[in-house]
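User: what does the whole thing look like in 3D?
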Amino acid sequence: EDQVTQSPEALRLQEGESSSLNCSYTVSGLRGLFWYRQDPGKGPEFLFTLYSAGEEKEKERLKATLTKKESFLHITAPKPEDSATYLCAVQKTGANNLFFGTGTRLTVIP
Amino acid sequence: DAGVTQSPTHLIKTRGQHVTLRCSPISGHKSVSWYQQVLGQGPQFIFQYYEKEERGRGNFPDRFSARQFPNYSSELNVNALLLGDSALYLCASSHPTGSGNSPLHFGNGTRLTVT
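Assistant: Here's the predicted 3D structure for the full assembly of 225 residues, as structure tokens:
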């Protein structure tokens, strides 16, 4: 059965304290793994797509990596404006839809 | 450029009623998808439409239906509303690249409350 598990469920960091969010997945044929950011009352905002193990992508303080079983979202020196829920989703080969995890709620304290 | 727009932003309905939610995709995007997000959970796939044809359906009952219009906008209809249908309904559009890996761009959703 396809599964996407994100950990931790919630994370509190001091401003400047780097950390990583984890997304482990079980899917029969990965077409792509996606990271989204969601602010309260808003729709998810696209961050990254990763296609194959070993791939890395960066955007400002965020860096996403992918292995055959999991993906990490590294946050370097976070700021309070990075506070949000980070969602991981997978797309299976032959499918058009995304299968989401339940997200990690990140709070960055000034 | 305008992003994905959804209307209404909030809606309160009574059990047994029906509801129609509307979505306008980003200009140039021909694919529209609908997702349901219950509080504290990730979005769950309901439908995908491309060029006015249904291209995918999630595990939702037949009370849920959708359609896409010639201008690529879309409607999601839910009949015989249940309390459990209370959720944020998200519309997303994408620009097909042929590979199917064009990222989804989401609107801010319609918050539906069923009482």
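In plain terms: Chain B touches chain A through 25 residues (CB under 8 Å). Chain B has no helices and eleven strands.
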